[in-house]
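Reopening this ticket.

The earlier resolution said the output was attached, but the attachment link was broken on my side. Pasting everything inline this time so it's all in one place.
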Amino acid sequence: MQFFFFCRLNNKMSKKRTYSDAFLRYGFVNLPSGGEDRPQCVVCHKVLTNESLKPSKLSAHLQKCHPNLQNEDQAYFQRRAVALKNIQFGSSGIQAQKLQAAVEASYFVAYKVAEQQKCHTIAENLIMPCANEMVSKVCGEDQAKNLSVISLSNNTIRRRVDDMASDILSQVTTEIKESTYSKFSLQFDESCDVASCAVLLGFVRYVHQDKIKEEFLLCEDLLTTTKGEDIFNIINSFFTTNGLDWNSVQQVSVDGVPSMMGRNRGLRGLIQATINKEMSDHLKGLETSMQHYFPESDLKTASLQWIIHPFSVPDEAIHDDDFPAKEEWITMRANEALKLKIPCWLSTTCVRSSDLTYNERGYFGNPT
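Inline output:
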């Protein structure tokens, strides 16, 4: 019996109240939130709880907070309600403009905390109390209450810093991809942080709007070992995630440690192998395209050697029956400027771009 009584009592206490249009005479409209009706004042925009949906409590708010409006008719509050609908509010009843300003202030504090390399908890434990005290002393208590909408908790500051870092990385990678000069240079260094943990640092140099820019590219933890394969896997994963192409790498600068400069299992050798493989796949794709245009022809036959060596095959080796466009071909061979460009293009594209060079300063890259 006692258990049944407490169940009835709990059900009665948890009953949700509903909004009535008659509450507008007290200056309140409905603001649904979390599946329940909540009254919002059309004058001060304050949102009360669901339990406040009683004429006595709504009238008490009007008498306490807006005593000069007690004698206003319902038409006045109706006009205020229409004006209220033109204002965007969040689920908590705070104006969207205030919410946006609060978010911007939170990001600014997070930026300063990261810039000064301070602990994230300093925002909530030091900055917010000081800001509240300064505003209350100078502007008053009412103005200081507006600072309560600014979130400066430890987790919030961390999310803000991560968001800003992701946005900066997105801007850098976008500028690299949209650069008028498709090549870019990299610099990597394996170091230790203050906790003696191995980290990999990466920097990039590229051309943006006809100006050379240098930006910080990546900082990744080396969780296991610091071998060349581990370093390469981290960089390769970063390239894949951000859509960067190994063939666009013009030059790479590293320190002289064996894990970086090893020809076979070092970072240098692994990057060379990756670029060579991508170039090989590219050439295979060209071969497939060529077979599409010449499906039943063998490019190694004497009659089609002009395709591979257009300037070295003698005119007598081409018969009119095998080559209908012989006159156009002879005209092309007479162009000395084109004759100089085509061998240079072949040597640059098919040979040099897939072979990285190295000098004593620790650079290896595509020769220009």
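Reporter confirms the inline version is readable. Residues 1-13, 343-368 have pLDDT under 50 and may be disordered. Residues 299 and 305 are 6 Å apart (CA to CA).
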